[in-house]
Design brief:
With 256 residues, the chain is α/β, with parallel strands linked by helices. Helices cover 43% and strands 15% of the residues. Helix 1 packs across helix 8 (225-236) and helix 3 packs parallel to helix 4 (105-133). The structure holds nicotinamide-adenine-dinucleotide (NAD). Residues 14-15, 17-21, 39-41, 44, 62-65, 90-93, 114, 141, 143, 186, 188-189, 191-194 line the site of nicotinamide-adenine-dinucleotide. Belongs to the short-chain dehydrogenases/reductases (SDR) family.
């Protein structure tokens, strides 16, 4: 792999305590970025970042759906690192398969707030910093569920479909400032989240995982967190300097 692709850059990665966010944040540090590991679960964010030099990383507790938390996060990045080049919106919550008449208002609001409103909030606070710099890369981890629906995933599909369209709208809005905005659609991935789609308590058995998820992927394997990290590295780096508004499926062909 090409090394030091992110030398001199500073990144915020949300959801960096687990799964894809953790893999993205760790790869970015290996590629020489300064990285804020942001997560609601601060212990997980600290554990994900503690093998790196404290000069290059910082773990911050944030609820990405909370305006005050997100505003404080972006103030902190400027104070600690003095600039901001990359934001990866990876924090997300799943939906246990639920028919729409059984879905509570609170469940709907939570899924939309964490998966979609969070992107509005982070870009709202990233915009002034990146516009001043006349550069930046924002990457939204959406989902193949944002373009291919599944029964019982009504709110989740809607939240990711909105994330995809918000990516395109922001790409156009920010293009005059040389700020790029792209999204990645992971297919079913081998992370702690996958078990929660079926029963919410993580007790999904391997047979269910295969029947529901694996069989839907033409390439025949679940997506790994590292697959999403490598796609994020491309979009974050200058290798993708002319790429914006792109929705990259990293899904083993699930979206075909
Ligand atoms: N796992 C899959 O099959 C799959 C498929 C497509 C898309 N995705 C999306 O990829 C992203 C990463 O998922 P993952 O599989 O790595 O999940 P994960 O559950 O392993 O990690 C999600 C992280 O987000 C954090 N988080 C949750 N709510 C938060 C909040 N309000 N504020 C801050 N942090 C919060 C959690 O603490 C956790 O560390 C999510 O947006 C998810 O919707 C996942």
């Amino acid at each position: 792999m090409i090394e030091k692709l992110l030398q001199g850059k500073t990144a915020i990665v949300t959801g960096a305590g687990s799964g894809m966010g953790k893999a993205i944040a760790q790869l970015f540090v290996e590629q020489k970025a300064n990285v804020i590991f942001a997560d609601l679960n601060i212990e997980a964010a600290k554990a994900a970042s503690d093998s790196f030099s404290s000069e290059n990383v910082k773990a911050v507790q944030v609820d990405v759906s909370n305006n005050e938390d997100v505003a404080a996060l972006f103030q902190e990045v400027e104070e600690v690192f003095g600039r901001l080049d990359i934001v990866v919106n990876c924090a997300g919550v799943p939906q246990v398969f639920t028919e729409v008449e059984d879905l509570s208002i609170e469940q709907w609001d939570r899924i939309m707030d964490v998966n979609t409103k969070s992107i509005f909030l982070t870009t709202k606070y990233a915009a002034p910093i990146m516009k001043k710099q006349q550069s930046g890369s924002i990457i939204n981890i959406a989902s193949i569920a944002g373009v291919r629906a599944r029964p019982g995933l009504n709110a989740y599909c809607a939240s990711k479909g909105a994330a995809i369209m918000l990516t395109k709208a922001l790409a156009l809005e920010f293009a005059p400032y040389k700020i790029r905005v792209n999204a990645i659609n992971p297919g079913p991935a081998d992370t702690p989240m996958i078990n929660q789609f079926l029963n919410g308590d993580g007790t999904l058995i391997e047979e269910d995982k295969k029947k529901i998820f694996l069989d839907s992927v033409p390439l025949g394997s679940l997506i790994q967190a590292e697959d999403i990290a490598q796609a994020s590295l491309y979009l974050a780096s200058d290798l993708a300097k002319i790429v914006t508004g792109e929705i990259l499926n990293v899904d083993g062909g699930r979206g075909i």
